[in-house]
Amino acid sequence: MEVFYIDDQPVPFEKGEKILSAALRAGLEIPHFCYHPALSVVATCRMCLVDVTDLGNGRPAPKLMTSCSTDAMPNMRVSTQNDKVQEGRELVMEYLLVNHPLDCPICDQSGECTLQDHSYAHGTGHSEMEYNKRVYGWRDIGTFVQLERNRCIHCSRCDRFTREITGTDEFGMFNRGHELTLDTFSDRAMTNHFQGNMADICPVGAITEKEFRFKRRAWKLRKVPSVCTGCSTGCNITIEHDRNEVLRLKPRENQDVNQWWMCDEGRLTYQQMNEREQRLAKPMGRVKGKLLQVTWQQLYDAVADRLEALKPNREQVVALVDTDSTLEEMFLLRRLLQEVFSSDQVFYPQQDWTQPESEFFIETLITTDKAPNQAGARLLGLKGSQEHDVISAMKSAKLLLVLGNPFINEQPLLDLAGTTELMVHIASRQSEWTDRADAIFPGQNHAEKEGSFLNKQEHWQRFWPALRPSRHVRPEWQILSELLHMGTATPVQQTPQFSQIFQQMTSIEHNLFGNLALEKLGESGISLANLRQQSDTLAQTA
Amino acid sequence: MLEETLVLFRNIRTSRYDGTLDSYRKAGGYQSLPKALAMQPEEVIALVKEAGLRGRGGAGFPTGLKWSFMAKNTGKPSYLVCNADESEPGTCKDRELMLKDPHLFLEGMMIGCYALGCHHGYIYVRGEYFPAIKSLNKAIDDCYREGILGPKLLGGDYALDLTVHTGAGAYICGEESALLDSLEGKRGHPRVKPPFPAVAGFNSCPTSVNNVETLTNVTAILEMGADAYKSLGSPNNAGTHLVSLSGHVNRPGVYEVAMGVGLRDIIQELGGGVRGGKQLKGVIPGGSSSPVLRADEIDIAYDFDSVGKAGSMMGSSAIMVFDEDTDVVKLLHRISRFYNHESCGQCTPCREGTHWARQLLRDFLQNNGSERKLNRLQRVGRNMGGTTLCALGDAASMPIVSFLKKFPDDFRQYYATAS
Fold first, then answer.
1. Which among B341, B386, B389 has the least Cβ separation from residue A177?
2. Nearest to B260, CA basis, from B243, B237, B242
């Protein structure tokens, strides 16, 4: 790869690559507004000006060049810091702020606003503008995003987004010159399912999410990498939370999965993470037909006693698992049945789903499989409800274990649950199963626990805990591993660590997971196909 | 005594010439096209290069060179788009050609299409030019009827279609890449260059965008040969050009003169001097975007290089003359208003700067001027130059900078009397 020099630092570039994209890849910063790697280059904000002191042929460029649209050339020398560049940036900053309302105190973008950052870094701090600022009329453009046109700096990212990324083109720039403005086509509401991304790519507060409006200052938010549970695509997200409340979900760039985007439906799943009313908050046991609050120890003891009395054989044990359980939970549940009851009757609600096809990548993000981990259940060899008869298995069941809330729309199954001798429900949220349960182990929700999912393409991704759970609940993997210890009568260690469970899983299932250590599964995950390839090459070299 | 050199206007200046196909043929029309068709396309380009024809749209870029930049063997069709969106204030030469002698222009366009291997040419006409549009459409219809255009160009084996496309009145659509966007049916916004139109223009195909007068000159070059054509102008500025003379002169109008005649001669002799026997104050020598020249600076030859040397530009050869009574602040305000209205709004400096400059100038007119505002106006004007994607930023910047430099006292007068 050839190199050019930015402020005397060598930067490698591919042929035809622009100065700005090469610089960003090398981790250098050049301030910019209109450039976005996913969108076409328009070079209109003029913020990314650089001084090309040597075009690679010994001659300087005649004027400041926009780095987003200038090809990098071998041995080119670029200055991003000299006085000429500073002056150029100051000028652009001044012009951008001429009509910007500077309403940062009431703007949701404040704190994560590129205009604010660049203004502090490159602006002069004063303006000679003494006329009234431009004021646009107010527009409501739909349910998901809020348009505040006065804050717009006309970078046209949103315009290009609807044109080039979603292809819906219902939103754009209208009028011209200093009256240039944003609007939806003929005053209709926005129709695309990815409007939240417009708020993400907006460098200022012109487009913000309605859900997040006036809820929290951006700098208060703490951010934890996670995976969206909205569907089997598993978009990489950041859970942004404060005071133990999730405020919003933002997409995290992952070129293998979701690129830069996520859908609005996925963004709304934050509400489930804050769910309190339907929450299973405390361990409960059925005493004389009534569900009463008990301690964890009482619950384990009671379950152990009942099992002792029942002594179910392998046909009499059935486990149902929801496909939004993590790989580790599914693994532990399967192991529990295998090791304690020698049973393999772990069923999951198998779903036919379709992968939408479109020339626009973003349209392929929303699948019809609304569970994040069906691929994991299949891979671990659990029994799919379409291929195996859950109902006949349930008919002979004495012990029923339900992890999560699967099959809640299947009345025959729910009815059969009443005929079992012991029904254990492990979940974070109430459902029809809860009313029929004899023992309720309250679990943790997606934002509180750790785990990993396999998405539709068998891309293996982990997520981290964001919220601090109540002290009365335990993560499902912990509950299952405690049940496993109880059932196999092995001594319980002190509270198990997630990494140990993970290690157990990858070493027992090393042919699936290649004995991977938890630390190796980074923020962007790993494709199982790649993993197999890697272990194959390792085996070959060995 | 300066007289017109009639090449492009030779038919128009003939009495009883009505611009129809018949009269054009009678005047010797459609004789150059067969000449071109008998040559190889490369030879036509070489001939145009040899003749030293420079684009008449404003930049003065050598046409032959532009044509030779066209990407070849791309597997895509190539296009010749005629820029007839004549919208620089002061310019009205292309209208004359399209209105009064459309076939002369169309013949040049056909030769150009042949030279570029293009089978579909577009003429992007300014939307307000209703009579010119009508005349062009009629001329093209006549050509189709007579078998000049169509699957057999002049009965030969070259297929050529011409389409007239009307703009919607945006100045920015005279910028070639914005014109192409507009022609494709998009908003007319200037594109990022490179890629230049010669590589990826109309529908991402190789495209050459040429002015009406430039293409009309091609007919003349084919007719008279490169040497005879070159001998008409001054060195490096070949041929004749159409001068749109307007403002405070006795006889405003479009005149055809050889390149390199004296600027003062054009005003004094062709234009009949300043109206009402007043003193000349200044001249805008190349359309409203060109830097202004004071009365004592116009003893120069009127061609691309000489006007450039004098610190201005010849642009589209639109001379605007103003006399001693002119209020240059008002004049500049009017010009700024135009660029403010026509800025597409993409680039930050132009979008905000054109409006700011207009507001500052309005302040002067309302007797709110001050030294501080004068300096600010200068800075705002200067900062638009060279910082934008297309040339509109420069076009808005040059008049402001030059007026402030050439006529500072006129601005001072405003706030001197106010205070």
1. B341
2. B237
